[in-house]
Amino acid sequence: MVGNVKTMPSSLKKNRYGRHSNVCSLPEKSVLVHGLKSDGGYCGAVTKGLECGKRHMVIWKHLRMLGFVLGLMASFFVLDSLMLSVIHHLSARSAGPSRKTMGVEDGGRGYIVEKTKAKMMYRRLDNLADKALLMNEVQNDENLLWEEPTGQASTWKPCANKTNSLDQGQAVNHTGFILVSANGGLNQQRVAVCNAVAVAVLLNATLVLPKFLYSSVWKDSSQFGDIYQEDYFINLLKDDVRIVKELPTHLNSLDIEAIGSQRLRCKCNFHALKFVPQIQEVGSLLVQRIRRHSSVVSKLDAQLLGDHMPKAPTTNLDTSSQGPFKYLALHMRFETDMVAYSQCDFGGGEKEWNELQAYREIHFPTLVMRMKNESISPSELRMLGRCPLTPEEAALMLSALGFKSRTYIYLAGSHIYGGQSRMLPFTKLYPNLVTKEDLLTPSELAPFRNFSSRLAALDFIACATSDVFAMTDSGSQLSSLVSGYRVYHGDGQAPTLRPNKKRFAKILSENETISWDQFKDRVTKMIDEGHRVRSRRWGRSIYRQPRTPGCMCKDSS
């Protein structure tokens, strides 16, 4: 008699993927035997004994097959998991750029989601860079990229926040009031304000808080008090100046630096201009999310965020093996106005050239008239270093310097000309790219909408507090002011990458023949040149190069 009999239905079974399979089913009426009685009444006869043995062998045969099939399915499951991991890794490299790229627009059509053909000028170098990034993953010398390459940078200390006794004496009898109107965006206005402070001291006059003009380009109605703390600004400078479009002709020949207003422009820019609490609060939130709530803070954080400094998280997300989370901030100065004004060719053919020419005729009519009288070609402009770096060229620069593909990058600005098709070569090599629109919610950004200067202030904060700051055009006001701020308040621990566009154009012109090792060495030497610690040369911007007497003091020890 058979005991503990279980029947297996003949219906098809579903595996873990929902697919039907009959590999594990036994024929209908088959039985699994857990115990057989060996009494003679059941298997006493020889023929019945043979039938019983055969049946026993068939059952064990099915059991062995069932075990084999289950083992095979387990192997398929492991292999499937491995394949999914590989595909996910590859998709982060190739399909990552096709995701919604916030802050990058294409011809005013809004955000681009669908796949777009990449606009590439250096396909061979792009392929070499892709291979080099794969090799970089096994190297452990990346820490050098996040540090200033020379110790001399830390010998210069901020010293503009001092009171000059001569300035106090000059302010006894003031000669009147100065009214200043500043135009442009956030960074142009910042420079104008500090220049106005210097002029007020020259004239021994009282400065009225500057007015910001409405610009048809920036479309921002913000005033001084919407961006900077008025009371703080007035109180910090009260011992220097009691808070003209142009200097009078007879003052043009004065040695401004000898009188001491160099120092005051530094004090204004690096100490007196503090963002309002609303900007500081959202800026702090942005920095915390970029750093993934790492507890590490810097002196730059204190200068820019004030009472809204990031606080240590309840759980530290950093690990001892990985160290503090680091990020690179990149100011990609490749907006339509910059691209059009440069008169350069960016590989987009006749259609792109006509599009940019139409923009020039509307926004830069004087430039169009000048172009008719000039014979310089776009290729000559590029070799002279007058063309802004494209996203593709920026990615090649970073990969040549050895930054890994997983490097976390904050992109400052928006409205990249060409949209996703221009960004694809960059995000193919560096997919971990974020903007303020990615990290802040619509409600958090709502107070800043339609105020380009306030949005630019958030980019200023994110760039200035980054572990490494990279620029694509050193002539940009934001890049100049951020790099100077990092020099002044960074204690020699805030590296900035400044490409020499003329030298880089010469290197890229050998795209078809240069080896990757040669490309990497020449780009590294180019960037190293920009890391040299030197005093400000005459005529150079003090906001970009503050290492000069009266602004920064050199530590002789």
Instruction: Name the shape in a single word.
Output: globular
The N- to C-terminal Cα distance equals 101 Å
Task: List how many beta strands DSSP finds.
Answer: 17
Strand order of the largest sheet: 14-13-12-15-16
Radius of gyration, in Å, reads 34 Å
Strand residues, percent: 5-15%
Mean pLDDT: 76
Helix content: 40-55%
Class by alpha and beta content: alpha/beta
Biggest sheet statistics: 5 strands, parallel
Spans where pLDDT lies below 50 across 5 or more residues: 1-47, 81-114, 314-321
Instruction: Specify the number of helices.
Output: 23
Protein name: GDP-fucose protein O-fucosyltransferase protein
How would you summarize the topology of this molecule?
Layout: E1 2-3, E2 6-7, E3 13-14, E4 20-21, E5 31-32, E6 35-36, H1 40-43, H2 46-94, H3 123-136, E7 156-158, H4 165-170, E8 177-178, E9 181-182, H5 186-202, E10 206-207, E11 211-212, H6 224-227, H7 230-236, H8 256-259, H9 261-272, H10 277-290, H11 299-305, E12 328-331, H12 336-342, H13 349-363, H14 365-373, H15 378-383, H16 391-401, E13 409-412, H17 419-429, E14 433-434, H18 436-439, H19 442-445, H20 452-464, E15 468-471, H21 477-489, E16 496-497, H22 501-508, H23 516-530, E17 552-554
Parallel strand pairs: 8-10, 9-11, 12-13, 12-15, 13-14, 15-16
Antiparallel strand pairs: 1-6, 2-5, 3-4, 7-17
Helix pairs in contact: 3-16, 5-9, 10-20, 12-13, 13-14, 16-17, 16-23, 22-23
Short précis:
This is GDP-fucose protein O-fucosyltransferase protein. The chain has helices at 40-43, 46-94, 123-136, 165-170, 186-202, 224-227, 230-236, 256-259, 261-272, 277-290, 299-305, 336-342, 349-363, 365-373, 378-383, 391-401, 419-429, 436-439, 442-445, 452-464, 477-489, 501-508, 516-530, and strands spanning 2-3, 6-7, 13-14, 20-21, 31-32, 35-36, 156-158, 177-178, 181-182, 206-207, 211-212, 328-331, 409-412, 433-434, 468-471, 496-497, 552-554. The protein is of the alpha/beta class and 557 residues long.
